[in-house]
UniProtKB/TrEMBL annotation:
SUPFAM superfamilies, alphabetized: P-loop containing nucleoside triphosphate hydrolases (SSF52540)
UniProt keyword annotation of Transport present: yes
Gene3D superfamilies (UniProt xref): P-loop containing nucleotide triphosphate hydrolases (3.40.50.300)
Protein name listed in UniProt: ABC transporter ATP-binding protein
Organism: Dokdonella ginsengisoli
Keyword Nuclease set for record: no
Length: 277
């Protein structure tokens, strides 16, 4: 484990170099460097508002950085022409915490949707692919149900089947465990690991649940203050000595992430321009 020094992997599927992003005058990333190795599960952790979702949006080209490179499979995303960006996005699967299923479509049609949207495949092929993906997430028997008939955990598994329906090279999981009971959480956890290993996918997992992350992820980046504050395999990372690591994994209320939101001088706010005597 190293604090604040990213691994430089020659075989990284995603390489971020010198990424700087300012949103609404706030620096989110300050020359961030990190590598996401192929075929592994890399977790991105960090305090709320540290930019984890923003990083995912950079990887998919939904947000332009102020400076730096985000290379996905060798292609610098911010510099890609529109058509190549769309090609790249088709090789990326997403799973969000709200599952984002289409409420008027059955489970089957939700999973089939990305196939029908972009490809003209014979119905028999669509059926085989969709049922194979539903089988992989344990829900082939639920193909005809509507989203309103699913539990939260099932809905997320359907969304996962949809995320892999076009055999992506990369899956982005944004808070996949939020709101799940322990059984559903473990099912999703196991699926993330199994799909990654059996389909040879590269996975990026944004999550706050360290116990779950430490079971699923091969390596973790802790992002804080616009940079990589720490990285390593989960068990080592939690033992890190940096103030960020200690506060984050110790769950301390005050530290580099301050308890107090930045504010004017307290005395001035209370009407004592020179402070109380
Ligand atoms: N489009 C935008 N315009 C302006 N500010 C934004 C925009 N998107 C995100 N932000 C700000 O950027 C910061 C990082 O947001 P982001 O959602 O990436 O954080 P996060 O680490 O994923 O947080 P959480 O763990 O709470 O989900 C936040 O302060 C957020 O308010």
């Amino acid at each position: 484990m190293t604090d604040a020094k990213p691994t430089q992997s020659a075989d990284a599927l995603v390489q971020v170099r010198g990424l700087s992003t300012v949103l609404n005058g706030k620096t989110i990333f300050d020359r961030l460097d990190l590598d996401i190795p192929r075929g592994k599960i890399t977790a991105i952790m960090g305090p709320s508002g540290t930019g984890k979702t923003t990083l995912l949006r950079h990887i998919t080209g939904q947000l332009m950085p102020d400076a730096g490179e985000i290379r996905v499979d060798g292609r610098n995303v911010p510099a890609l022409p529109r058509d190549q960006l769309f090609d790249l996005r088709e090789k990326i699967g997403y799973l969000f915490q709200n599952s984002a299923l289409l409420t008027d479509f059955s489970v089957f049609e939700n999973v089939a949707f990305p196939l029908r949207q972009h490809l003209r495949l014979p119905e028999e092929v669509v059926r085989n692919v969709v049922l194979t993906k539903l089988q992989a997430v344990g829900l082939r028997g639920a193909a005809e149900l509507m989203p309103s008939e699913l539990s939260g955990g099932m809905a997320r598994r359907v969304a996962l089947a949809r995320a892999i329906v076009r055999d992506p090279m990369l899956i982005l999981y944004d808070e996949p465990f939020v709101g799940l009971d322990p059984i559903a959480l473990n099912q999703i956890l196991k699926l993330i690991r199994t799909l990654n290993d059996t389909l040879g996918i590269t996975s990026i997992l944004v999550a706050h649940e360290f116990a779950a992350v430490s079971r699923a992820a091969d390596q973790v980046y802790l992002i804080a203050g616009g940079k990589v504050a720490a990285q390593g395999v989960p068990a080592e990372l939690a033992r890190g000595e940096s103030p960020w690591t200690k506060q984050f994994f110790g769950g301390e209320a005050d530290g580099p992430v301050p308890f107090q939101y930045p504010a004017r001088d307290y005395a001035a706010d209370l009407g004592f321009p020179e402070g109380p005597r």
